[in-house]
Amino acid sequence: MSMIGMTLYKLLRKRGTSFLAGMVVTTIILFSYSFMTGNSVSTQRAVCMCICFMLAAVIGRKTDMLTSLAFTAIIILMDNPFLLYYSGFVFSFAAIVSIAIVVPAFSSEKNDEHDVKEANIKNHKNKICNKLLSTLWSTAGIQVAMLPIVAFYFYEIPLYSLFINLIVLPLVPFVFAFSILAGVTGFISIFGGKVIVFPAKIIIDIYEIVCETVGKIPYNQLIVGKPNTAKILYFYLILGIMLCIIKLIKKNVLLRVIKTVVCIFLTMLLCYNGKEKFEIDILDVGQGDGTFIQYADGTAVFIDGGSTSKDKIGKYTIIPFLKSKGISEISYWFVSHADEDHINGLYELMEAGYKIDNLAVSQSAAKCDEKTAEITELARKLKINIIKLSEGDKIRITDEDRIECLYPYKNTVSDNRNDICLTLKVVSGSFSAIFAGDIPTETEQVILANSNIGKTNLFKVNHHGSKGSNSKEWLSTIKPDISVISCALKNNYGHPADETLHRLENCKTRIFYTMYSGQISIIKDDKENLIINKFLENESAAVR
Fold first, then answer.
1. Is the Cα torsion angle 34, 36, 40, 42 positive or negative in sign?
2. Which residues make Cβ contacts (< 8 Å) with residue 423, sequence separation at least 6?
3. Local structure of residue 236 (DSSP, 8 states)
4. pLDDT at 112 over 80
């Protein structure tokens, strides 16, 4: 938009048009183009800044990029203050701030006597090298300054984008020139316009090929998680100090070393997430189940992962959640049973290539359930280790942390998947939690008769709160401090049933619902207290 506006304005001025007339004509064309292309926030920003530069010329004043940007932000936010939280607004304005502040410092080169002598000897070669270095550092400056914002909204940062931009950016003026020329020619001849725009199409095709190729290179995206406010402030504080130091350094070699070291350090700062705490997150997947568990040593575990009320639950809920936590791989993924509302998100992750080390299924289901056999076969093809569990098996995470299988037994066989659900007891020190999928009351009675299940701190309510589960005997035995029901607000099954809620209330447990509170997070602090966070209600509570 700036290129179109300022080019048109300068052409009008060269043709003898007055400052005011040139501004009026350019503004009308810019507004027309903006509304024609959807009037996005970034387009509004570009148009308003362009008008600021022209207005300054009309009234005989000077303006600069940051002043115009600040004035533009005020104008846009006066119309809609909530745009301040919109990623498009943040990206657009942050990029311009980076260009105005960071790029001049990053792209600057100091000229000492030795540089001047070398330049006199190899002037042409020196100019080319300096131009390439300036472009490289300018691109690096923008991208480094934008890293926290990229991480905040996308939870990952691109490692190779600097080199992609070295290919992309120099060709942008050609795309722009051919496109404008083709648009003008199209008024006269459609065929002529198509011929002229063809080079621009070739360049765009090259962009796509380059991006697709880089996307296949290992570690092209580095998952860093969502940075908190403190980390972002530290990042920009260090970047600001570096920009001040750059102005004091005279030697180019030292300057480049410092810029390189600080860029690497800032990237590592975003990757560092500090000491982990034991945490359980029961995701809001609608009508389904999906639970993430992270142990203090960093081991990541997932139980189930599916939904029948939300489309592409893996792509739009589970993967973004994992990335926001900085999780690049799952150590153990447990499948309670192979109903769609428990596994379709897992399928999406496996097909997307998300790294899963071990897939744990019920040994009984692996024998007699076709769907379970199907998902384990896919896991084998993806070289995921298969673990088949039965009652008594334990997966030890640390000396105090483990996951125990309470059911089914080795010889349990059934045509009903719910009857052979994997029932797990998650243990971390003195804390324990029960996850039993969709087991019915009859299965609960079998487990109670054959296992010393005992009291538990957290209970993920069986079968989404169905009245055919969560019997009085079951609840009076496990005596949960906290019970979480995972289901959709509107579902065809009547979940959670009034009978189940009545039984839960009678056992004096605290009840939480994903359908009301969204994601439920239970975090164990250093004093063994449980901190419960409800995502939608923006509340937290402590349980001793």
1. negative
2. 336, 405, 406, 407, 408, 434, 435, 436, 437, 439, 443, 447
3. H
4. no
